[in-house]
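Blackboard transcription, Thursday session:
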Amino acid sequence: MTESDPRQVAIRFTNVARHFGNVKAVDHVSLDIYDGEFFSLLGPSGSGKTTCLRMIAGFESPSSGSIQLYGEEVSTMPPYERDVNTVFQDYALFPHMNVQKNIAYGLMVKRVPRKDRERRVSEILDMVQLTALGKRKPSQLSGGQRQRVALARALVNHPRVLLLDEPLGALDLKLRQQMQIELKAIQQRVGITFIYVTHDQEEALTMSDRLAVFNHGKIEQVGTPAEVYERPLTSFVASFVGVSNFVESNLAYKVTGESKSFTLRPEKIRLTTPDASIPADCYGLNGTIRDVIYLGMYTRYLVDTEVGIDLTVVVQNLESTSSEVFAARKRPVKVLWQKAHNRVVEE
Amino acid sequence: MRSNSLAFLRNPFAQRAGRSPLFLKIATFAALLFLHFPIWIIVLYAFTTEERTFKFPPPGLTTEWFKVAYERQDFWDALTLSVKVAGASSGIALVLGTLCAAGVYRSKFFGKDVISLLVVLPIALPGIVTAIALRSAMRTIDMEYGFLTIIIGHATFCIVIVYNNVIARFRRTAHSQIEASMDLGASVFQTFRFVVLPHIASALLAGGMLAFALSFDEIVVTNFTAGDDQTTLPIWIYTQLFRPRDRPVTNVAAVFVITVTFIPILLAYRMTREAEH
Amino acid sequence: MSTDSPVPTTNPSLQSKSPIRLISNFLYRHSCLATGLLLLLPMLWLVVVYLGSLGAMLVQSFYTYDRFTGQVIEEFSLDAYKEAFTDPDLSPPNKDVIKRTVRMATAVTIGAAILAFPLSYYMARYAGPKMKGVLYLGVMLPLWSSYLVRVYAWKLILAKDGVMTWFLEKMGLMPALDWLLEIEGIGGNSLSTSYIGVFLVFLYVWMPYMVLPINAALERVPKSLTEASSDLGARPWYTFLRVILPLSFPGVVAGSIFTFSLTLGDYIIPSVIGTSSYFLGALVFTQRGTVGNWPLAAVLTVVPVVIMMVYLSVAKRLGAFDAL
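(Written on the board underneath:)
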């Protein structure tokens, strides 16, 4: 999908705001989500991402602005009229219905003939590998199984857009990682636009075609995972997506000669001996290693530089052992990084 | 062991978890005995052969009084009226209490507390207040005392029973279920029919049955709102207490009332239990 | 999946809409209005029937009763209030009746709290889930089952040759009973015509109302709190007095609303059991019933309402409403 541009817009937010009393949950957001995309809304809790999702679903209506679904204005349309389905954070399975009835619910209320309904339910059960559990009640399922039922219940309706509200939040790490891959595969198979809300930056980076980073009701950046990670536009994005060194403008001046704040990813920095020469395309600073944190796969060094900038540096433990890295404490070093890796950001 | 079993005298709360202090067990048992013993006594007296006094132990046992009660038309009339009254007033309470619970659950405005207070007031204030107030109002508008006035009174204090049961269930229901239903294409009415109603059904039934039980044996308000020829079963028993005819028949009626009220209570209890687990 | 063409129903917004759909949409969009519609009927009933009745009662308390004609004169006056509180000729002086009733209600409330607390405590702290169910039912059954029948049961128990007498005789405790009945103020001819008897029945009938709120309050005291207290070196008694009791006190107050209010307004129990001296409820009952003095009956009903209003406001301050 990503290569076919101009793309059809699935969801268009134009200047959408949502207030709860004096709180601006969503503060004049404009956003295009394209057809067939796996799009993530990433942000800390209270950043407005879930409210945006709920406005797409129709559970909230915007205080101002417009929301279009495939060109149709939907901002005041009730949820049951929208061709959009949701996988809820707590799954929201109906406890009094078995798995089959839960999945068939959407078809049932839309009066799809029984034969058709049964066929589609069994197809979708196949897809999420739950065929054997059709007669069970939700209370008899494990967390992962419930999650699949919730997914199947939404997908069976062939919505034009599927909304997922932190659907993997309640699962343990292993299962979560497995489900991430599976969700992505399902999305590619059915070709439906997925809008995925999460506060887990790793999850957003792994799964999305594109993502929007939310903070205080506003979108700070929209882009592909690589764009957002490599070229963060704001210091918030740089710190929220991955780990970053943030160098304030007055300190930045001492390095670059310009008083513009920048961020720098810790893995882009190399540690060398204090007397090493600085290549022309690099910045270099002398300093001391204040602390060493050994993390198995890699080691995190905290370096105090002579100009007063504290930098975090991550080095993969390709050959070094733990005793070697710990011996580096208090040692004078030079840090080097390519000039191109500086990201000038707004504060 | 001996010194241990006397330890409760010094320190009744010594055992924090698991086993309870002996004196606490005794106090619990005594309180329960106090609550239930009189009910057994009623049952025993329904079989006594003694006609005039309340002699204990009964000189002999007989089932004759059940037959006598069975043949008393006034008893059956009173029973029929009570069932009708309880049915009608719990029906009204069911509708009003459920609507009220749904409204209060949905509303976010401050008036919520006022409404819940208003619902509780008819049973929080002494029974005589509700009774006199209703009677005053009926007098003021010259309403004729009868079946209708009894039901108006009963429904008023039964609303809270249904309300309490239903709102408790609403509060335990995840709101996301309602959202999920609408998300899947169900309209407001379909959502009510397929998701909300099954959810609150057992609470409705439990509330309805408790309201029935409450209405069935109510006397404080009934005395004031009933017409002269309206004898509900409790009024019949009350009259029997002061102008006894076949005294043991009262005992039989009492056993009957106890049984009739026990059944809905037990059922209501079971239903709310099941829903919780 | 992609082979399965979307069914036409997947885009309902393009379909023509049934009137039910339109109403549904309207209700969804105007959710405040929908809430208002839900509340309309019950509020109408409670405001018109219940508050209206209370209002009518208040109005009648300002009417005058003509003793000669036995007629109620519908004009504003404070005569009934004057009569209720100052008339020395009334056969039972009303002030005494009010005092006696409040005293009884207080005694019943304290008695119920003492009796109910260990039971609630055991239920909340020691009983296993199954035992809890049994105890809960053991309290609920009497609470919901026929009030009149349970009062009547005590007439059987307290009667002159009834169970109580039989039991005390067997135990050789009759002298103790006689001694108790001779005490001025609480005694009487026999148990069934004494204040002790009335107290016992009130206690019996209203006690379950005390158990449930206390139990609810105790259930809310986290187990870790007692553990923390003992971990900090408090002895169990101290923990009980300083941690559990204060935390469960709102429950006791919540329960006392019921025991107090119900005792205050009851007229059945003193008429079935007890002495010839009046309680508030019974006094109202006779004024209305045999005398037909409506204004006075209304005034005397306003009294418990005022008492309860004061009681409720105090209870609210003590946090009892959260324990309900």
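Lecturer's comment: The first helix of chain B runs from residue 2 to 5.
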